[in-house]
Amino acid sequence: MVNKQAIYQKTLKGSEAIANRQSGIAPKLRSLLIMVDGKRTQAELTVMAAALGDPERLSELEAEGLVEPFFVEDRTLPAALEPAAQQTETEVPQRVANLAQAQRFSSHLLEHTVGPMAEPLCIKIEKASNLADFVDVIKRAREIVREVRGSAEAERFIAQIEAQMPVG
Fold this sequence. Notes:
With 168 residues, the protein is mainly α.
């Protein structure tokens, strides 16, 4: 059963397809891919796809691995993405097991914190091949958050990332 409240986001492959105009994606499909912003529900995107002439386009993007459902819970963020100030002291986020999970978490958090303008940096976060590269990109992300949302938000951002750093 399709969950019309599922929120969709671009995958790394989808973000790269947007960055590369010669990716071979049909124009209408590319237009819908651009509209996938990590905030719109499956229902909203289906309406947009219908306006482009084919309500099944979202399924096509998902089948090609360009988009994926992000979270489902009636437009609330997963606890791990809630701003640190809203978490209670007893809610300690689980540490992730590997770099890939930390990258994914960080990328989602950055996009949620800053918005679509963070997409190029999110791609760099997800492409970091080792922990040192990842940390370098996260430092740049903190500066972006500081510029856009202020110092306090930048420190909350870093605290949440540090809580998700790989164990071991």
